[in-house]
Amino acid sequence: MSFLVVVTENSPDRLRGRLGIWLIEVRAGVYIGNVSKRTRQMIWDQLENGIEEGNAVMAWSTNTESGFDFQTLGPNRREPVEWDGLKLVSFFPVDK
Fold first, then answer.
1. Which end of the chain is more exposed for a tag (fewer CB within 10 A), N or C?
2. Which residues of the chain have pLDDT under 50?
3. Please, what is the end-to-end C-alpha distance for the chain in angstroms?
4. What is the bridge-based pairing of β-strands 30-35 and 24-27?
5. Segments forming the whole domain that contains residue 81
6. What CATH number has the domain bearing residue 10?
7. 57 and 6 in contact (C-beta within 8 Å)?
8. Chain Cα centroid distance, residue 24
């Protein structure tokens, strides 16, 4: 089991309801829970299939140097990058 956080933006209501089955929505679009790796992967599959024009990030506790890992989905200025064994976030410039 690992602690899981999912944050969605501009997601369809049906996806928000679906996430609410496994996680607690503590703020609009912010979900938390303690789930197995299998459940985490199933939740990610639900995000991939239902996010439409929105975006999401999923972060979970794991046995890494930083103590967590994360992945993103959909258009966003932030992109995960690996640097010297750590996962960091790179920012794209603002479109004007």
1. C
2. none
3. 43
4. antiparallel
5. 2-91
6. 3.30.70.240
7. yes
8. 14
Residue 96 lies in a domain: no
| pLDDT confidence of residue 25 | 97
Cα within 13 Å of Cα(19), Cβ side: 30
Show the tokens assigned to 46.
Answer: 């639900």
pTM here is 0.86
- Total domain count, the chain: 1
Burial class (CB in 10 A: 0-12, 13-18, 19+), 53: exposed
Judged on CB neighbours under 10 Å (0-12, 13-18, 19+), 14 is exposed
User: Reduced to 3 states, what is the DSSP secondary structure of residue 24?
Assistant: strand
